[in-house]
Specification:
This is Copper chaperone CopZ. GO terms for molecular function: metal ion binding. It comes from Thalassobacillus cyri. This protein is α+β, with helices and mostly antiparallel strands. It has one domain: Alpha-Beta Plaits (2-Layer Sandwich), CATH 3.30.70.100. Helix content is about 30%, strand content about 35%. It contains two helices and four strands, in the order βαββαβ. It has a four-stranded antiparallel beta sheet.
Length: about 70
């Protein structure tokens, strides 16, 4: 299992649940933590089932700007 953190620009407390749902929909995810105060999302996932790009792309495809 791998745990990685990336930043998401311009999202608010009300967006946290939506971003968590987006990330949990990616196959292989084990845990998600989203913090709007810091602008960060942390994802733990099975690297055999998903790639890091799968998570960042899912968030970007939902209209959020991903950094890192």
């Amino acid at each position: 299992m791998i745990t990685r953190t990336f930043s998401i620009t311009d999202f608010h407390k009300g967006d946290e649940a939506r971003i968590e749902e987006i990330l949990y929909d990616v196959w292989g995810v084990r845990n998600v933590e989203v913090n709007s105060n810091l602008g960060l999302a942390t994802v733990s996932f099975d690297e055999k089932a998903a790639s890091w790009q799968d998570f960042t792309q899912a968030v970007a495809d939902s209209g959020f700007e991903v950094n890192g």
